[in-house]
Amino acid sequence: MQETKETSLITKKDLRSVFWRSFTMQSSWSFDKMMAYGFMYSIEKPLRKIYPKDDDYFEALHRHTETFNITPHVSPFVIDLSVAMEQECAKADNFNKESINNLKVGLMGPLSGIFDSIFPGTLRIIAAGIGISLAAQGNILGPILYALIYCIPSYICRFKGGQIGYRLGTGFLDKLQASGLMDKLMLAASILGLLVIGGMTYTMVNTNFVLTFGAGTESAMTLQTALDSIMPGIAKLGFVGLFYWLLGKKVNTFVLIIGTILGCIALTALGIMG
Fold this sequence. Notes:
The structure is a single chain. The protein folds into 2 domains: about 1-195, no CATH class; about 205-270, no CATH class. Helix content is about 75%, strand content about 0%. The protein contains 12 helices and 2 strands. The chain has helices spanning about 1-5, 10-20, 35-50, 55-65, 75-90, 100-135, 140-180, 180-205, 215-220, 225-230, 235-250, 255-270, and strands spanning about 210-215, 220. A two-stranded antiparallel ribbon has the order 1-2. α3 packs parallel to α5, α5 (about 75-90) runs antiparallel to α6 and α6 packs across α8. It is globular, with a radius of gyration of 23 Å.
């Protein structure tokens, strides 16, 4: 009976709240947190029901301020999956809270890759092409067809995705907890999260050291080439490691951004970076 009560703690009304609030995911977008605050706002009401005590509630809210970015159309799936994990976290004393964010980070890349190509990459282009061609002729069907082709599938994906995410989370996590596989899932989620972060480090961080060593065109070598010959991407890894260390020292994010801009300008002026 207790399991039934805990399972029914989150109602359809709460899931509908996540659906409507997910439309604000990009309203507070920032370069350091991306969609994090929109995610926190979307999950706020379910968290209040899961954690009646203020300390637990505020801790859970803060947990969801970590950097997050995903195709908006599929965001309710991850939000409601996180709701299910938060429910399990509230029930189990030995639940690894870091696995919640690790799973979120692990899903960002694969889901964005799939749904970016479906919605912005395909449906929006087709809908805009049909809608604009009709609208240019003064046909009222232009905007109507755009809404039918692009907006309605997007809304359906948001709504059904949230329901699927919550059902998948509650049923799947309960089975894992009963079978004793929860620790393995937490470990797998941690590894996946670190793997995604490592891939993002290599693909999204760019360095170009143009400082040249040696004389002549054949023997000359840039600092970037020398570093990449040691290990490809070692400069990128070094920069990310430095920022990770500074964040661990509680250095303000704004200070880091301004310092990075000024540092890059100085290194470029000195001919070290290009």
